[in-house]
Amino acid sequence: MSTLTSSTPENSPETTVALFSIQDRDSGENGRMVCSIQDDIPFALKPSVENYYRLVTEGALDRETTAEYNITITVTDLGTPRLKTEHSITVQVSDVNDNAPAFTQTSYTLFVRENNSPALHIGSVSATDRDSGANAQVTYSLLPTHDPQLALASLVSINADSGHLFALRSLDYEALRAFEFRVGAADRGSPALSSDALVRVVLLDDNDNAPFVLYPLQNGSAPCTELLPRQAEAGYLVTKVVAVDGDSGQNAWLSYQLLKATEPGLFGVWAHNGEVRTARLLSERDAARHRLLVLVKDNGEPPLSATVTLHVLLVDGFSQPYLPLPEAAPEQAQADSLTVYLVIALASVTSLFLSSVLLLVAVRLCRRRGAASEGRCSVPGGRFPGHLMDVSGTGTLSQSYQYEVCLMGESGTNEFKFLKPIIPNGLIQNTKQN
Questions:
Q1: What is the three-class DSSP state of 72?
Q2: CATH 2.60.40.60, the chain: domain bounds
């Protein structure tokens, strides 16, 4: 039995695989022949001219299912006894590019820790092609994204042959926590076939942000001072330190601790919420001003921290005027001092003037006590002393004015009723003429 090798492309129905002829040297029935092949293959024998046959495909062959067929052709005569011979044909199915590359997963999720080094290998994608030869060679590429804010070309790259991905630069979790894109896989057939898969990159947080204090502000300006009444009970809420952390998870869990205090044991800080409370009752021996240093620390590894300074002023009550701390800005302190001096000077001048008037009235009352009668008024003939009244146009009374004093006498007592100026007639006439 001889063997013949033949090749036929897949997906080609009714294709002639081989053409052969048979013969028998006998005559009559002994020379008549019957030709056949096995039944379980997609091939058939079709007679051509006398003693010639064609081996053809009955349907489209699929190389990916069966790449090779071994066909046995049996020729039997009709003599007695019957004689037969067999001939083998090996049919190899040649590949046609009828399969697109297929990814091993429909989607990929890759986890990358932030602050990675550039050119870091962050993962791979893989696709296979059931074809053979060039039809099975796969190349990878990044497909264009529809997100205008995602500059994909600056974030990741892919090796066209191996499918190894994504980081071109250091990634920042606080700026970009996750992003996704599609990767294409194409074979080198003609025409080329392709497919794509979704890739999602998730950044893992690194503890690279220290806590940031929102209150009280630590911006170098005049410190914020908290007022604390001396009557406060133990556990009194003085203030609360408010801080945030740009990280996530345990890297953003904050705890608070009192590092230093002007008077240890007087204040305490709650570890989980930053509340500053009194630890005991206050006494007269406690200082009026206190400075607290609070530590804010995250739970990262290693932990990062920040400090905040608090100023507390003890007062007898919230109605007590607030006095600025000595650390206040010099310009503000100077302005406040000048205002106080002006108020004191104005009050002194006003007091001196009122005292002088009241003293003069008292003296005149004493002189006229005997002459006063009930319901009558006396007009004193004298004038105020010049050294008290003549102030040369400073807004006080002139010595050309007189005062009318009304006294009411009853039961031996004198009472000051009213005081009003009397303008001399000459002054009134001069005024009218002017």
A1: strand
A2: 3-94, 102-204, 212-328
With beta carbons less than 8 A apart as the criterion, state whether 378 and 371 touch.
yes
Q: Tokens 């302005």 identify what position?
A: 335
| Phi, psi for 63 (deg, rounded to 5) | -65, -35
What is the helix (H) or strand (E) element at residue 196, kind and residue range? Answer: strand 194-204
Instruction: Report the sign of the C-alpha dihedral through residues 168, 170, 175, 181, in that order.
Output: positive
User: What are the φ and ψ backbone dihedral angles of 261, each rounded to 5 degrees?
Assistant: -145, 150
Q: Which CATH superfamily is domain 212-328 in?
A: Cadherins (2.60.40.60)
Burial class of residue 140, CB neighbours in 10 A (0-12, 13-18, 19+) = buried
Distance CA 95, CA 61 (A): 10
Rounded distance between C-alpha atoms, residue 153 and residue 144, angstroms? 9
The correct answer on CATH 2.60.40.60 for the domain covering 102-204 is yes
Burial of 269 (0-12, 13-18, 19+ CB in 10 A): buried
Q: Percent of the chain at pLDDT above 70?
A: 77
What pLDDT shows up at residue 98? 92
Whole-model pTM: value is 0.60
Number of neighbouring beta carbons within 10 Å of residue 23: 9
Contacts of 400 by beta carbon, 8 Å cutoff, 6+ apart: 424, 427
For the chain, how long is the longest CA-to-CA vector?
A: 189
Q: Is 264 exposed, middle or buried (0-12, 13-18, 19+ CB in 10 A)?
A: exposed
Report the top-level CATH class of 3-94: mainly beta
- Are 74 and 86 a contacting pair, CB within 8 Å? yes
* Residue 53 buriedness (CB in 10 A; 0-12 / 13-18 / 19+): buried
Q: How many CB atoms lie within 10 A of CB 288?
A: 11
- Here the tokens at position 306 are 């920040």
Virtual torsion, Cα 258, 262, 266, 269, nearest 10 deg: -20
Average pLDDT over residues 228-243: 95
Residue with tokens 């820790």: 113
What CA dihedral angle connects 405, 408, 414 and 415, to 10 degrees? -70
Is 60 exceeded by the pLDDT of residue 404?
A: no
